[in-house]
Amino acid sequence: MDKESRDKKNSDKLDGIVFTGGLSKRMGSPKALLLYKDKPLYKHVASLLVPFVDKLYFSHKKESCTLPEEEDVIIYDSYIDSGPMGSILTVLKHVQ
Asked: Which of 23, 69, 72, 73 has the smallest number of CB atoms closer than 10 Å to its CB?
């Protein structure tokens, strides 16, 4: 790969993933919906990713909490009760 091709490849943006699932056993309520700087935590994390990604996805356990419909893309976990690894595997099936 020549230098020009390598530089172009390195400048390409990525898909961003915000993992919003989890059982919230210790917290008692969904962590993604906790307020941080006057907005839900998942929105704060998403705002940090936006400058670096073309598309933003939210990985989410369908039963854990409800994210607002306006979010770009919500990817629901396919591997139930598999913890974080199940979420990662699900996301890898949906994005490149």
From this structure: 69
Structure-token pair, residue 78: 């396919």
Neighbours of 48 (CB within 10 A): 10
Whole-number Å distance between alpha carbons of 36 and 84: 23
Cα(8)–Cα(1) distance, integer angstroms = 11
Which pair of structure tokens corresponds to residue 93?
């099936």
| Full pLDDT tens readout for the chain, 96 residues | 555 554 555 557 688 999 987 777 787 777 888 899 999 988 999 999 999 998 888 988 777 667 766 555 888 888 888 888 999 999 999 886
User: Distance (Å, rounded) from C-alpha 59 to C-alpha 55?
Assistant: 13
Q: Is residue 84 helix, strand or coil?
A: helix
